Amino acid sequence: MPPRRYALRWTEDAVHPDTVRAVLSEFLATAIFVFAGEGSVLSLGKLQKDTFTVGGLVLVALAHAFAFAVAVAIAFNSSGGHVNPAITLGALVGGRISVLRAVLYWIAQVLGSVAATVLVWVATAGMRPVGFVVAAGVGRGHAVLMEIVLTFGLVYTTYATAIDPRRGSIGIIAPLAVGFIMGANVLVGGPFDGAAMNPARAFGPALVGWRWTHHWVYWLGPLLGGALAGLVYEFLVAQAEVPPTHHQPLAPEDY
């Protein structure tokens, strides 16, 4: 397995054309995902007053699953298709991306979310973004735990199908796999805390809609879950070195 790398210093990687393209790709992919995700919630609210229904939950879950799968697919060749600061953090603690590139990805993802939410706000004639909030009767500690568990599943799936250099042909279905787990997790966690699993996805609507209640939950939970998934997969599941005759040829590096 290729060696892990933890580059902590400023390098030419910051201005390399490939890095610039990767960062732009993360910005655009995140914007596409957030526009579709937040837009689906506002669209549902436009159609019916009560969006907290079984049908509404399924529709929002499908919208997020499809949008995230597409976002990962279109960014995969350029940046690895993170589209989520928690996934980037998982790759960082696993040594599969440099610190500098991780920071650039985080900036691009957050800005992409804000830009998309502004576009949603303008396109819907000023409808206030809904964002995420912990449901009544659900403790904040429980919401953090929910976000940790949901994000762990999302990042672990991403790590196994997209980030692991030994992924081989399984990388072809990576966007579909992460889209499926995204949709399933929304069905599980949606009624409790909205199931963000993505600090950038939560930040844009919170800023534009100025809804900050419980917002810290959607940073702490996903980042802890993402970091834990990266550590578990990289250091407990993935083998440090495998004889060439016992595994598939290494897939091309994305990072």
UniProtKB/TrEMBL annotation:
The keyword Transmembrane helix applies. GO terms for cellular component: vacuolar membrane. Its main location: membrane. It holds the Pfam family MIP. InterPro entries: Aquaporin-like, Aquaporin_transptr, MIP, MIP_CS. It is found in: Vacuole membrane. SUPFAM superfamilies: Aquaporin-like. CDD domains: MIP (cd00333). Keywords: Membrane, Repeat, Transmembrane, Transmembrane helix, Transport, Vacuole. Gene3D superfamilies: Glycerol uptake facilitator protein (1.20.1080.10). The keyword Repeat applies. It is a multi-pass membrane protein. Belongs to the MIP/aquaporin (TC 1.A.8) family. TIP (TC 1.A.8.10) subfamily. This is Uncharacterized protein.
